[in-house]
Description:
Strand content of chain A: 25-35%
Largest sheet of chain B: 6 strands, mixed, barrel
Largest interface: A-B, 30 and 27 residues
Helix content of chain B: 40-55%
Low-confidence stretches of chain B: none
Order of helices and strands of chain A: HEEEEHEEHEHHHEHEHEE
Order of helices and strands of chain B: HHEHEEHEEHEEEHEHEHHHHH
Structural class of chain B: alpha+beta
Number of strands of chain B: 10
Mean pLDDT of chain A: 89
Helix content of chain A: 25-40%
CATH class of chain A: Alpha Beta
Low-confidence stretches of chain A: none
Strand order of the largest sheet of chain A: 7-8-9-4-10-11
Radius of gyration of chain B: 32 Å
Oligomer: heterodimer
Number of helices of chain A: 8
Number of domains of chain A: 1
Amino acid sequence: MEVEERQEERMNNEVIVTKDLSKTYGKGDLQVHALRKTNITIRQGDYIAIKGPSGSGKSTLMNLIGCLDKPTTGKLYIDNTDVYTLSENNLAKIRREKIGFIFQKYNLIPTLTALENVALSMGFAGVDSKTRIKKAKKLLEMVELSHRISHKPSELSGGEQQRVAISRALGNDPTIILGDEPTGNVDTKSGNKIMEILENINNQGETVIVVTHDPDIAKRARRILSIEDGIVREENV
Amino acid sequence: MFRDNFNLAYKNIKERMSRSILTLLGIAIGIMAIISLMGIGEGMNVAVEGELSSLSDTIIVNVGEGFSIFSPGQLEDTGEYLTERDITDIERIPGVKEVNTQLTGMASLSFNGDENSVFLTVTGMDIESMNLQYGLADLSEGTLLKIGDQSKIIIGYDVAHDYFDNDISVGSRVKINGKKFFVNGIFSREGFGGVSTNDDLVLLTSRDFQKATGESNIFVATVSVYDVNEVEAVALEIERVVNENHGKEDFASATSMSSILDSIQSIMGILQTVLIAIASIALVVASIGIMNTMLTSVMERTREIGIMKAIGATNKDIMSIFIIEGLLLSLIGGLSGIISGILGSQGVAALLSNMGPGGGGIPLEPVITYMAIALGLSVSMIVGVISSLYPAWKAARMSPIEAVRYE
């Protein structure tokens, strides 16, 4: 009963709100509307799939929500902060503290070991080295990679690299986990495992947003936002 | 945080080992050149100072132009000489401790019978002056003269080997103006390289000089003073007294060894500065090398930079990673440059010491000061920071989204 209440309370917290968010590339006749005036609200604990064919604008939306890119017009609020009014440094702070990124191509630092990769984002956040090594080990244990902590990315399989990337994304206890086609580069079995891990994280109260073009992956989410030609529509699940 | 950025920079250098080594080689060569040149220069200073400072109480008096570093030991024979009266007057000047004289004149030298005789300049001096002036010179055979030696001479290499059909050797008997002398020592060959040459020298004691030539033409007087601090004042007084004796304003010059030392040091200082300036060009080239490597590295790691930004690295973090990398490269280069510079200066010194035509060159011990090491280290660090500044700034400025997309 108590748990349900808490979950409900979290659900009422709006972690991401977009106001007429849009992104246009190019000028004049060559102008491409990657995202048209988008208004979405994402609450704490949501599990959302953003789906759409390639070129539909889903990655654009993802990058805008992840504070990697700036919109042409519109606003984005993360935990009630109007993020695009922030300075470069504060934007980096939002990325570090509020958002955990998981990329399709894992994007681990090739010169660092699994453990160092996971500890890296905590390092940028100023966590002391003892604490972050301890936490990184725990996170790698969670994704069942305890035995691979001193391996470099090139010595890991795609699925393993993606699990390291998930651990890295969780390092600073972010509010939002953003996965950009997190299963796009791995086989079905590894893909399922990755989705299970993300769902577990979601069950613990994290907001999980996954961009995918795979309908099976999308179906696992509690909310589906589908994009076509830059227009976002919420599908009924 | 610094440790993490250091770790990232270090791992990147390690990952691109051969390129890193080539880059730091540039710095190493530049620093090596500077350190070894400074070491040699300082060593020369110390050698000259050590040699001449023991003579700092000495004044050289000669007829005509002053004794200069461009003609040490080779004064022009003007045909005019100091007189006994000059020497007595000099001895009376307050502060003067001792006066030694060097006599010169023409005499005939013969060897193996009188029909082979040569007319040449002979030099007579006291044993003390001889040791002072020729103590450093190399002898190919025999020794310099000692106090009490009589009828013994020292001759130059050419006198021993070129003037007569047969070579003169130590112990040989020669005649100067018909008087018998034994050869006690022969100077090593100096050749044309040296400004002064001992090759044509015939050296004997003042007493023997007078015995052989019947003359006492005082060519040079070597005066020593009691108080080193008075040396310049005494030198001026000597000039005044001697010039007055001869009724000419610039009949003679009295030059103190310390003034010679000063001019040698200032010339060596200029020489050293010029050499170091040339060596610094190597550092400029090395600095461009670092910048080039770092720019390539930034480009290659565009994606990595994007990832780091996406997971929360600030521009400052990215900049410091690249600056630390440049600093690390140049510091390792600088350190190896200092070590090889120390070894290199030993090598150059050994080479210079053995380079003379007769096998004898300048005896030189390079001196590496803490100052030189500190300079080498700080120059390499400054080069590292300056040359990585632009690449680091370029890296920090990258937009995360474009960097992540970069293939």
